[in-house]
Amino acid sequence: MYDLIKIAPLAADILTEVLAFAGRYKAQKTFAVYNPATGAKIADVADMTAADCEAAIAAASAAFPAWARKTAIERAAIMRRWHGLIYERKDALGQLLTLEQGKPITEATGEVTFGANFIEWFAEEGKRLYGDVIPSHAPDKRCLVIKQPVGVVGAITPWNFPSAMITRKVAPALAAGCTIVIKPAEDTPLSALVLAMLAEQAGFPDGVINIVTASSAPEVAGVLTSHPDVRKISFTGSTRVGKLLMQQCAGTLKKLSLELGGNAPFIVFDDADLDAAVAGAIAAKLRNAGQTCVSANRFYVQKSVAAEFAKRLKAAVEALPVGDGLDGNTRIGPLINTAAIDKVSGLVKDALDKGATAELGGARHDRGGNFYAPTILTGITPDMELATAEIFGPVAPLYEFETEDEVIKLANDTPYGLAAYFWARDIGRIFRVAEALEYGMVGANEVLSSNPATPFGGVKESGVGREGSRYGLEDFTEIKYLAIGL
C-alpha cells in the first residue's frame, strides 16, 4: 500500500468506505488489486468461491419476486437515487477507477458519468415496456402480449471499462424487474464494489444486486452458467470465452447477451477530410491505450493519400503524453498487466521480424513496467499475427488499398463483426460502404458515439444481442401471450 492520500485523496476516502462495505463478503482467502501504472498494491478483496456464488444466486432468487412486483415507477425512483449518488462522487470514483485500471483520469471520470447515464436512461425506459393487443381471431376471445422480467441474471464484466460495463448490464436488468449477480474482472473489482455500496445507499433491497469478487473466473462462471435459477447471462469479453459460456449455458437454455471480440477496420478514402480522419483515428485507436473491443485494429488508407495520412497521424500521436493516468496531462496510460504487454510486444516483434516498418514506436516505452510506446507500423502482410489478432494495445498497422470494392472485401475478411469506421465525403460512397460493411456498428466520418439510447453489439463471432437502447431492455424480458375467453 502506498500513500493514496497524497496522490489520490478522493480515491483514498472512498476506498476506505468501500473496503468497510466489502468486509461483509467473508472468504477464506483474498487477492490483491494492483495499480498497473506503478505495480503498487491498492487493496486486498475477498476471493470468493463457487459456494459464495451459489449463495449470491440464492439471495437474488429470494429478492426477485418482490423486486419484479414493484411498479416501473417505484424501481425508477431507486435507480435515479443511485444515479445521483454516483454523480455526486464521480471524481472519487474516477480516481479509484484510474488506480485499478490505469486509464487517464479524464477518461476514467468520463466513464463513470457515461455509465451512470445508463442508470438514468433505463430508469425511465423501464416505464415503456409496452405490450400488445392483437386483433382477435374470434369475437369471444382476446389476444394480449405482455413482457415480464426474465429472472435472475448473471453478469460477467471486463476490466477495460470496469464501471460502465457493469451499469450497461445492470441498469436494463433492474429496470425490467430482474435481480442480478455480478462477477467483475479480477483486475478491477473495486469499481464494482463501490457501485454496489452506492446502490445500497440508494435503497435497493437486499439481494437485488450481488457482487462476487473472485480470482478464478472459470469457477464462478461455471456456477452462473449451470445454475437453474439463473435465467440469463450477459458477458463482455473474448470470443473464445464467449463460446465456452454459450456451451455451458446450453444445459439450461439460458438467454444470452454476448459482447465479444472485434477486429475493427478504419478506412480512409481519397476524398476524406484527412485532419478529421486523423482525429478520429486517435480516438478510435488510443482511447484506453487501445484496450477497447471497438478499437480500430486495421487501418486501410487509399493509396493516393496513404503517405500524407501516415505523416499527419505520426505527428499527432507523437504529441500525446504517455504516463500515469492520475497525471492530468496523460493521454495514454499503461496496459492492464504484464500478460497484456507481453502479448502486444509479441505481436509487434512478429510483424517487424516479417518485414514491417515501425514509423513510430515499436517497443516497450522508456517508462518500463506496463507501458508500451504508441506505435505506427507500415508494410503489413497477411502472414503477420497482428493482421488477424485483436491487438488490444496502442499499435496502429497501416495498409494501402486502391478501390472501394477491394477495401470492402478486405474489411469484411474476418470472423468478427463488431465495429467499423470509415472517412469519406461522397454521399453515395457513404451509403454504399456503410451498407456493405458486415458489422453491427458503423461510424461514417464519426467514431462510434455510444450512448444509452443506441444499440451496442456485433454480428458474426462478435456476439449476440444488444446492450443499450430499447432493444437492450427487451433482452431482459420474456414475452408472454395471454389468450382470454370472454
TrEMBL record:
Which intervals hold domain Aldehyde dehydrogenase?
27-481
Upper lineage: Bacteria, Pseudomonadati, Pseudomonadota, Alphaproteobacteria, Caulobacterales
Any one GO MF term held by the record is:
succinate-semialdehyde dehydrogenase (NAD+) activity
**Which PANTHER family has this protein been placed in?**
SUCCINATE-SEMIALDEHYDE DEHYDROGENASE, MITOCHONDRIAL
- The identity of this protein, by name, is NAD-dependent succinate-semialdehyde dehydrogenase
UniProtKB keywords? Oxidoreductase
- What does UniProt list as catalytic? E259
Q: Which family does it belong to?
A: Belongs to the aldehyde dehydrogenase family.
Q: What is the species of this protein? A: Asticcacaulis endophyticus
Under Gene3D superfamilies, the record lists: Aldehyde Dehydrogenase, Chain A, domain 1 (3.40.605.10), Aldehyde Dehydrogenase, Chain A, domain 2 (3.40.309.10)
Q: Which CDD domains match?
A: ALDH_F5_SSADH_GabD
Q: Which NCBIfam families match?
A: SSADH (TIGR01780)
Q: Which GO terms describe its biological process?
A: gamma-aminobutyric acid catabolic process
